Amino acid sequence: MKPIRVASAIVTHGIISPLSHAIPIRVGIDTHAEVDLVDIQLVRQLGLKQCRNKNLPILRAVNQQNLPTYGAYYLRLELTDSYGVRRTTRRPYIAIDRDPGDSQVLLGMPALTELKILVDCEAY
Hints:
This protein is mainly β.
């Protein structure tokens, strides 16, 4: 499988397809995150159903404070890099309150590994 390359190492764009239509969204990338996250407001907007039987970890922010979580939700996400390489996945994301200025979805190491995403910091 050809690796997907992301020249913008922090934020890129993707398309989320909850039902029969696609919605463009901002997607954050964090190579230090151990989980994949979605904004609870996006979950509510799309009317997504919570995953069953998902053991949720206790999330801690950088300042060591616990972050409230709202369950895990499956998202179908399509990413395309600047070379036209496309990846589509359906996987669980943990819902949290994300800052409105942040991306609505954050790809941590689980998604980055599954999608074989290489963060190319030398492109700029």
